[in-house]
Design brief:
Blueprint (H helix, E strand, L loop, with lengths): L1 H18 L6 E9 L4 E9 L7 H12 L5 E9 L4 H8 L7
Antiparallel strand pairs: 1-2, 1-3
């Protein structure tokens, strides 16, 4: 009886462990603005997997998050993995992974 329970449980745990890397997050860099007075900004943001599929999906997620800080999205420049973070950190300044 124990073997009937342990085998499916082991298979489930293995499947979950293998699926974890597939849901890894990605990042995007973007340009945004604020009005009165006009301010332009460059930022880097972490996105969940569904928003990583296209610039359009990323734009929706980014717009929603940065609007809480009063920013309006102008453009999603690129979507990239963790390997692109270091080279963008200095340029993004305070908007590096802020939202």
């Amino acid at each position: 009886m124990k073997h009937r329970i342990l085998l499916p449980l082991s298979a489930l745990l293995l499947a979950l462990a293998l699926a974890a890397p597939a849901s890894a997050n990605c990042y995007a860099d973007y340009k945004a603005k604020k009005n009165n007075p006009l301010r332009l900004s460059y930022g880097v943001i972490e996105l969940a997997d569904p928003a990583c599929r296209s610039k359009q999906a990323a734009a929706k997620a980014i717009s929603r998050r940065i609007s809480k800080g009063g920013w309006t999205l102008l453009n999603v420049l690129s979507i990239f993995g963790p390997e692109g973070l270091a080279q963008r950190k200095a340029s993004a300044g305070a908007n590096y992974l802020r939202y």
